[in-house]
Amino acid sequence: MRLGLGHQAAKRNDEAAKCYEAAFALGSKLFEERLTHRELMAGLELMGEAGVGLSRLTFAGGDKARSDAATKFEAARRDLFNARVQPASAALISIDPKVVSRHAGDVFYIADNARERVWRVEAILSLGRMRFFVGEGGRIGDQRGAAKQLKRYLEDQDPVIRAAAKAALDLTREQMRMLG
To answer: How many whole angstroms separate alpha carbon 81 and alpha carbon 100?
Structure first.
């Protein structure tokens, strides 16, 4: 992105476009291959930045169709984030006591039933945190249930799910305290 901005500032628009397209392609690959929330977000952010760069570059160069396409993509990317990514992230990644306790049951359900692997992985990692902390007014049953469910995921046919369960079970109380 920085290289593209430098080329754009120096009026080397063809080179800038290549850089933006490469950044967009990398973001797309990260998004498509996402296993964790971080990868999903990195992909979305790269595609967003590259899309905006291409939109500005192509608009300034008079390519209205390409500029409009990049602008439409950005609007769709923002809609996806606001409608699907942000709500799921808020429930699964939070360490806010009120949020954690309100969504404990959701986490168990998502870990078992999410269609997208990224949300299963994040729910499983959340179960690892729930072994130590289930939020405001948390119940010991949720803590025990989290540990029990994580052990079950160690036998899952998906190696990514098994790895997430192992990471969640390997989380120590000290590591958990460092999250807050």
So the answer is: 21
Residue 108 above 90 pLDDT? yes
Same domain membership, residue 70 and residue 142: no
> 39-85 pLDDT, tens per residue?
999 999 999 999 999 999 988 888 889 889 988 999 999 999 999 99
Q: What DSSP letter does each residue of the chain carry, written as one string?
A: -HHHHHHHHTT-HHHHHHHHHHHHHHHHHHHHT--SHHHHHHHHHHHHHHHHHHHHHHHHTT-HHHHHHHHHHHHHHHHHIIIIIHHHHHHHH---HHHHHHTHHHHHHHHHH-SSHHHHHHHHHHHHHHTT---TT--HHHHHHHHHHHHHHTT-SSHHHHHHHHHHHH--HHHHHHH-
pTM greater than the 0.90 cutoff = no
Residues 157 and 76 placed together within one structural domain of the fold: no
Of 66, 91, 116, at which residue does a domain stop? 91
Q: Given a cut of 80, is residue 92 above it in pLDDT?
A: yes
